[in-house]
């Protein structure tokens, strides 16, 4: 997005990142800038906690600390390596299962050969003592085969348990890759995938599709005044209000920074405005208290834009129209919901055209 609000917010993150690079006396390499920019933006709660723990204990972050934290929380290879590791374990389990089955087939073939041989021997003798020996050998072979089958069953059950556990691990990795750690809402990657599917579905079925874009009012000032931890508390509060006011089919996401979005399939414009009002009122009804001191920090407000999808429209245009509604709400007083049919939105579009 190209709004003035985006510009000011991202410049603030960048300036703070450079300040932290200087304060900790680390080289201004792109990776180090990414590291401190991510910390300043507050997207990655695990990374922020790791940094804050070190700063609390030692007062500064070293280049080695950055390498370690980056590898754990930011490295683009991290998810890939986790998937590769689980995939290798699955392959190993499948190889073991195949080996067990091959061994069982060999044992079954030997048992079948033993049965055929015993049958032939029984057909060729009437000697009672010889018959007893053959039957005794058959019983022994049967017991051995039963033991082999029992062992195979135990091994297969254990392999099934292991594979089920590995499948769960893969699901956890997938969930983590699509979830914002701080708010537990869907992340931007999830939003991008979901909005594409939602538009395709709306074009296919002709059903309505609405989109909400939400921005926290005066968040930068609040974050600068009370610090990142309290800012994180605000983000969680808004995320909770969003989650509590959407239906099962709706997809609430953290779009970026202090912006949230909700994809509303099979929802008309007026219905979407009602959802947005419920979210706005829910946020405003909660008084924020600083956890570390118990200090009352007042109430948070949000501005929300609402738009309805136009069949055949591109994703970028749909998001841009919704953004314009949100920015119109912010520029005309904040703490309000505006949709594309409201006159304030038309005036805002003319002003920025």
Rg result: 31 Å
Main sheet overview? 5 strands, mixed
**Total strand count, please?**
7
| CATH architecture label name of the largest domain | 2-Layer Sandwich
The CATH superfamily of the largest domain appears as Reverse transcriptase/Diguanylate cyclase domain
Strand content: 5-15%
Low-confidence segments, given as residue ranges, are none
InterPro entries: Diguanylate_Cyclase, GGDEF_dom, Nucleotide_cyclase, Rev_trsase/Diguanyl_cyclase
Catalytic activity: 2 GTP = 3',3'-c-di-GMP + 2 diphosphate
GO cellular component, one term: plasma membrane
Protein name: diguanylate cyclase
Walk me through what this model shows:
The protein has twelve helices and seven strands. Helices cover 68% and strands 11% of the residues. The radius of gyration is 31 Å and the shape is elongated. With 353 residues, the chain is of the alpha+beta class. The chain has helices at 4-23, 30-41, 45-58, 63-73, 77-123, 128-177, 188-205, 219-226, 228-244, 269-284, 315-331, 343-352, and strands at residues 209-216, 251-256, 259-265, 287-289, 296-299, 302-308, 337-339. The longest helix has 50 residues, at 128-177. The strands form two sheets. Strands 2-3-1-6-7 form a five-stranded mixed beta sheet, with helices on both faces. The chain folds into three domains: 4-75, no CATH class; 78-177; 188-352, Alpha-Beta Plaits (2-Layer Sandwich). It catalyses: 2 GTP = 3',3'-c-di-GMP + 2 diphosphate. Pfam families: GGDEF (PF00990). One of its GO terms (molecular function) is diguanylate cyclase activity. It comes from Rhodobium orientis. Its EC number is 2.7.7.65.
């Amino acid at each position: 997005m190209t709004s003035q609000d985006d510009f000011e917010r991202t410049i603030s993150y960048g300036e703070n990142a450079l300040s932290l690079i200087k304060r900790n006396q680390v080289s201004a390499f792109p990776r180090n800038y990414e590291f401190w920019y991510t910390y300043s933006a507050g997207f990655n709660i695990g990374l922020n906690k790791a940094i804050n723990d070190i700063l609390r204990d030692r007062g500064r972050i070293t280049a080695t600390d950055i390498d370690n934290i980056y590898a754990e929380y930011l490295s683009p290879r991290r998810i890939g390596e986790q998937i590769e590791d689980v995939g290798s374990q699955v392959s190993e389990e499948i190889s073991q299962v195949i080996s067990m089955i091959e061994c069982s087939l060999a044992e079954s073939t030997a048992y079948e050969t033993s049965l055929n041989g015993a049958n032939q021997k029984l057909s060729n003798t009437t000697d009672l003592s010889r018959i007893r020996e053959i039957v005794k050998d058959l019983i022994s072979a049967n017991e051995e085969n039963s033991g082999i089958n029992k062992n195979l069953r135990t091994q297969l059950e254990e392999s099934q348990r292991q594979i089920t556990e590995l499948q769960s691990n893969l699901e956890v990795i997938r969930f983590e890759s699509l979830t914002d750690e701080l708010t537990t809402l869907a992340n931007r990657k999830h939003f991008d995938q979901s909005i594409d599917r939602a538009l395709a579905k709306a074009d296919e079925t002709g059903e309505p599709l609405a989109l909400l874009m939400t921005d926290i009012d005066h968040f930068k000032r609040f974050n600068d005044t009370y610090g990142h931890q309290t800012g994180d508390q605000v983000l969680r509060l808004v995320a909770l209000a969003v989650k509590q006011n959407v239906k099962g089919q709706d997809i609430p996401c953290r779009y970026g920074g202090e912006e949230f979005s909700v994809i509303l399939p099979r929802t008309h414009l007026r219905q979407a405005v009602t959802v947005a009002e419920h979210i706005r009122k829910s946020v405003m009804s909660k008084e924020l208290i600083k956890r570390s001191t118990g200090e009352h920090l007042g109430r948070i407000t949000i501005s929300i834009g609402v738009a309805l999808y136009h069949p055949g429209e591109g994703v970028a245009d749909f998001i841009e129209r919704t953004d314009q509604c949100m920015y119109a709400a912010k520029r005309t007083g904040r703490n309000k919901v505006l949709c594309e049919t409201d006159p304030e939105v038309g005036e805002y579009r003319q002003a920025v055209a």
